[in-house]
Structure formats: C-alpha cells, structure tokens
Amino acid sequence: MLDPRKLHLLRELARRGTIAAVAEAVMFTPSAVSQQLSALEREAGVPLLERTGRTVALTPAGHLLVEHAQAVLEQLERASAALAAVRGGPSGPLRIGAFPTAARVLLPPALAALSSAHPALEPMVSEIDPADVSAALRAGELDVALVHEYDFVPPVTDLSMETEPLFSEPMYLTDRPSLAAARDDPWITNKPGTLCHTMAIRACQAAGFEPRVRHHVDDFDTVLAFAAAGQGVALVPRLAALSPPPGVTLTELPLSRRTLAAFRRGYGDHPAVRAAIAAFETALTR
C-alpha cells in the first residue's frame, strides 16, 4: 500500500525540484525527506528517482506516480470535506490567506459575517502574495485564500488547486490620461516577482514603451502617497483607490484585476471553505 504522506512528498519534489526545497516546505530535514522517498520507492517496487551526485530527478515511473498521486490526494481531500459535513456545522481553525488590499478592504466585513454566522469557526488570516498561495495550500498552511489575476499576466496553473471567481475591478492610472502619456514619467511599481509588477511592465510594453521604474513598493496606500508626492505614476486597482490622497487624479483604464477564492482541489465542499466563500460574497454585496 502506497503511503499518501510519501506521495505528497513526491509531488512536492516534482514541483520544487530539490529535496532541500521540499524539506523547507514541509518542515522536515532533507535527510528525513530522502528517507521517506526511498521508502516510497521500496513500496512502489520500481525506481522513482535518479540520483546524480547531489541532484535528484524523477524517473518515468516517478512522473507516472505523480500523476496518480494528484488524483489520490484530491480524493482524500474530498473524503475529508465529506466527513466534515457529516460532523455538522463549520468549527475549529480556518486558515485564510489574502493579498494586502483584500485583507484591508474585504476581509474585515467578511470576518464579521463569518463570526456572526458560524461562531464556532476560528478564522486565522495571513497576508500572502498570490504567487505563493498554491505552495501554501499544498503544504496545508492555508485552507482557503484570496488570489488575483491581471490582464497581461497568464493565470497560475496548478492541478492541485481550484478557484472560484468572486469579482472583477478596473485598474487606474495616477495623474495621467493614458498609458502613452506616462511614457516619460518615472514609475512606481510593486516589487519584481509579483503579479502586480509583471502586469504593470507588460501593460506599458503593450502601450509601446519600457517603463522607467524608480520605486518598488508593494503597499498600494504607500504607492498613492508616493504619487501624491510627485514621485512617479502607478497603476492601482479599485480596491486600493477608494480614497486616494488629495492631489492624485485617477484615470480608469481598460484593464482589470480579478479576485478569486482558491483552495486545494477536492476541498471546495468542506463546510468551512463554503462558509468562508459565502462570507466573502456577503462582504462584497455590502
């Protein structure tokens, strides 16, 4: 019988590439991960890993088992969700991840609605960049998360994660009537590696220029404060632009940011996840 916990480690190795990265993600030692994977090979009866010096790669049999592992782990998530539904109403810890603007604007009313409807639930919120959500969900660090997608940025594809759309919001440009008019301005963008930064760079490139980035700032309130101080122009979503500082004008662009609820594949019917998504939707209607 193949151990699902070892299958999880094999799937993480396929995604992360090194035993050290898997060990860091699951909070094991590299030696413990290696031992677990060696035990899985013995259970499978075929080589799953090719070891060359300090590098490890999956064999064809290893890749085949990863495909089946995803289906097995998904079915176990479904079983967990079904058992939770049988036990009754949502209760216990609920780990929620959210990007900063959603945490500031959407989560306070959502948490109030959640506490009112399900007082036995204990929501615990962590701010997280959407690019890091799938790994956190797979590792069991989060149960549900708010993520976003932008125009010009392909959505993150992860077979272990499902999403449900919640809402779409327009993007605004500070202090200029169009992207083309901001060609020669200094820019304020989020840090490289974030979806927000990629969106801004590609939007400018689509308008025919490479932006001259002066500041890298992740917090949109700070971005708007910098714009008010004449430090550059920026693209901000509607959630971040509800109360712009004096002196900042905003031009709506034909660009959008879409917010979704994300959870482990097969886990979407868990009562706590359904309760969280219902609370998000309640907050949006208010």
From TrEMBL:
Keywords: DNA-binding, Transcription, Transcription regulation. GO terms for molecular function: DNA binding; DNA-binding transcription factor activity. Belongs to the LysR transcriptional regulatory family. This is LysR family transcriptional regulator. It holds the Pfam family HTH_1. GO terms for cellular component: protein-DNA complex. It comes from Nonomuraea cavernae. It comes from the Bacteria. Residues 2-59 form the HTH lysR-type domain.
